Amino acid sequence: MRKQQWILFFSGTVLLVLLYFFGNTIAPNKPTPISEASNAPAILTTQQVLTNYKDKLQVYQLEKIIQLENSVVRGDVHDQQIHVYHQLASYWKDTLHNEEIGAYYSGEAAKLENSEKNLTFAAHLLLDDMMASNDASMQRWLATQAKELFDKALTINPGNDSSKIGVGVCYMFGNISDNPMQGILAVREIADKNPDNLYAQMMLGLGGIQSGQYDKAAERFLLVVKKQPDNVEAILNLAGIYERLDNKPEAVKWYKNVLNYIQIPQAKKEIEERIKSLQ
């Protein structure tokens, strides 16, 4: 495995472990590179995505899904549908362990509730799944769903910078446009206006990595670490950036730094081994 591929795999693996145990809201930097965004992936419809996952279910699981889907009857259909969507979200996520479809149904409920809080919550769930996905077509579908929710939330509160960043991230990493720069510019505008917006700084840092602008990416992550010294993802990305730049002393420095914030034995072991290989 080539050096750069190893770094990407290593950072992603450690972050996935950390995310699993600690529930970090920032996903690993595994989206399709910005430079490849013009090679648009296949467009999946929601029906295709649902059918694909349903085809993998056991008979009793599929029966439960069909039962829920058909449970809306006469009367207060609106409230019934919201309740059913929440039930479907819970069943897909908690019972079937399918985060993507669970997030999708949370979004469907949020659309009917028309609550900014619920819309942005579901949108960020979809965005996290998009960032963690390795499938370009699924990234595009997840980004499309997330953007729709962010857009709806922005009609309620046009001044929500987090939602604006969310839309920008959909463009940057979601393969939904031939011009991902429109996403970068939107996020950069917010970061320039408010340098303390660490969400914007993190996303621009990830964008810098994907576009190969490592020095600029490092600047973004350094801003984050200055404000959040225990931000594991920012620290790991700094270590990975300096390793890509063949700056072994700085890479070792940041790998050692992250050991202060990791308690998972296997993750610590992998990092310690990496440090030894660089010294």
What does this structure look like?
With about 280 residues, the chain is an all-alpha fold. The chain has two domains: about 1-30 and about 195-279, Serine Threonine Protein Phosphatase 5, Tetratricopeptide repeat (Alpha Horseshoe); about 40-160. It is about 75% helix and about 0% strand. The protein has helices spanning about 5-20, 45-55, 60-70, 75-95, 100-115, 115-130, 135-155, 160-175, 180-195, 200-210, 215-225, 230-245, 250-260, 265-279. Helix 6 runs antiparallel to helix 7 and helix 9 (about 180-195) runs antiparallel to helix 10 (about 200-210). The longest helix has 21 residues, at about 135-155. The chain starts with a helix and ends with a helix. Residues about 1-40 have low confidence and may be disordered.
In short:
With 279 residues, the protein is mostly helical. The chain has helices at 3-22, 46-54, 59-69, 77-95, 99-113, 116-132, 136-156, 161-173, 181-193, 198-210, 214-227, 232-244, 248-258, 265-278. The two termini are 20 Å apart.
